[in-house]
Amino acid sequence: MTPLSLQDLEAELKNLDGWTIEQGKLHREFKFASFVEAFGFMSSLALVSEANGHHPEWFNVYNRVTVDLTTHDAGGITQKDIDWAKTANKLA
């Protein structure tokens, strides 16, 4: 897998509500009504991540989940990251 070009990445970002690029990674903060909802979101995505062999960098505090995505093996943001972000948006 190869990193997306800047043009491809910009085009994909137009369809990814809430996502930005920070420090070379796809980035978003999700907010939920409670810790249980935030943890449930993470649990659902953990199963997706494991099935796809693609795992996020994420951080949880109470009702917030902060996510950073990059494909380390490819050295940048790839289609795997875009697909994961789209799934996250659907589950949120």
Write the layout of secondary structure elements.
Blueprint: H1 6-13, E1 20-22, E2 25-31, H2 35-52, E3 57-61, E4 64-69, H3 79-91
Antiparallel strand pairs: 1-2, 2-4, 3-4
Would you summarize the structure shown here?
This protein has 92 residues and is α+β, with helices and mostly antiparallel strands.
Order of helices and strands: HEEHEEH
Helix content: 40-55%
- Determine the CATH superfamily: Transcriptional coactivator/pterin dehydratase
Q: Give the beta-strand count.
A: 4
Gap from first CA to last CA: 27 Å
Low-confidence segments, given as residue ranges, are: none
**Kindly state the mean pLDDT as a whole number?**
97
CATH topology: Gyrase A, domain 2
**Largest sheet features:** 4 strands, antiparallel
Reading off the top of the CATH hierarchy, the class is best stated as: Alpha Beta
Protein name: Putative pterin-4-alpha-carbinolamine dehydratase
EC number: 4.2.1.96
GO molecular function, one term: 4-alpha-hydroxytetrahydrobiopterin dehydratase activity
Pfam families: Pterin_4a (PF01329)
